[in-house]
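Hi all, long-time lurker, first post. I run a small reading group and we've been trying to get comfortable going from sequence to structure in the token notation. Rather than ask abstract questions, I figured I'd post a concrete chain and ask someone more experienced to write out its structure so we can walk through it together at our next meeting. Sequence below, copied exactly:
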Amino acid sequence: MKNMTLERMAQACGGIYHGAEEDKKKEITEITTDSRKAQPGCLFAAIKGERADGHDFIPSVFERGALCVLSERELPKEQGSYIQVNSTLEALKALAEYYLEQLGIPVVGITGSVGKTSTKEMVWAVLSQKYKALKTLGNFNNELGLPLTVFRLREEDEIAVLEMGISNFGEMHRLAKIAKPDTCIITNIGACHLEFLGDREGVLRAKSEIFDFMKEDGHVILNGDDDKLSEIQEVKGIQPVFFGLDTENQVYADRIRKRGLAGISCRIHGPGVSFDVKIPIPGLHMVYNALAGTAAGLVYGLSAEEIRRGIESLQPVGGRFHIIETEHYTIIDDCYNANPASMKASLEVLQDGVERKVAVLGDMGELGEDEKELHRQVGEYAGTLDLDLCICTGPLCASLAEGIRSANPSMEVICFPALQDLLKHLPGLLKEKDTVLVKASHFMHFEKVVEKLTCI
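-- Answer (accepted) --
Happy to help. Here is the structure in token form:
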């Protein structure tokens, strides 16, 4: 890892180096917080978690050949070289900030209430047509995940596409300090994390912290159809590039055609470009993701053909609108997370199913004092759609079911109090060739529902 010698790392994170003098000039090969992945030449960062304390595994990582350990404790001299710090997590953030500075590559930071991950995948797919790009994997988008993503970068990488997720004020500020993005993309401002952020104005303030450490010659890419984001006229003297369906945006789409669960097609227009494209994942929200990817592609000098090729190469991510064809069902696996906007978007796409359309829905978290009303509103929206059956699970989804029944008394709605009840009865409620949407917040563990359906 470029310039990541033990001596420089200790200086970068404000730690105290203990160990052999001859090791101070050695560069580490990688950084890990998982003792099972420790390899010769690596740095192991001992994190104290809820279930386990990484410090307990320090002897084993030295046995595996680790060059150094990041530790909050004083260690026996005979174990090996280590850097002692007050907080391992804070040290990792400082090291990630330092390492990005050593690499000096452009950083695209992506945030928003809905669609961060799918937009990140789209932007990466587009930029990968011209550059060797690295992207955030899984849910590594928080104050521990972002540094671990940064540490995956190597000198051959030409651009980093980093997802940045938060739930409270100040978190994005700290993430932005690490990433110092050259390009900031915000997908939208929705009703999420209201338990901590209060309202959409609070969400906007929290997400806008991404601009705090943006490079002076950076770029801002915003959803111009979002009423909150469209009010941003400039950021540090930089004029935003707006994308959306409204033709007033610099990057916009028209001629939108649904292709069922095979995806959606449209024509994209931007400064100096206009092209037709087939997006391989269904849903109007995917058009917005393609527009964000187009805007990023134009910023980094891609041609219209390169952008189109990138969009059409997009692959779904497990748990995020991943369509699974089994012998019995078509499953729309969108169970990684949920809020009112994403739930409505997924329900709308479910209508594109060919056979009977079934929504298996669970509670949405972190919605604050209005959580029951927000669930009810999603239910009222679901009641207006062409769905055959809605199966609701969890105490909050009882309000969602009430909303469905008030909007459409003829729609079949079945409620279960808990996940185990759903898993027990679900197979008997489905029919051959059903299209089944599985959607809930992550804490509901609806991945077990997907697993159940795929094993039938």
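A couple of things your group might point at:
The longest helix spans residues 88-103.
DSSP finds 15 helices and 20 strands in the chain.
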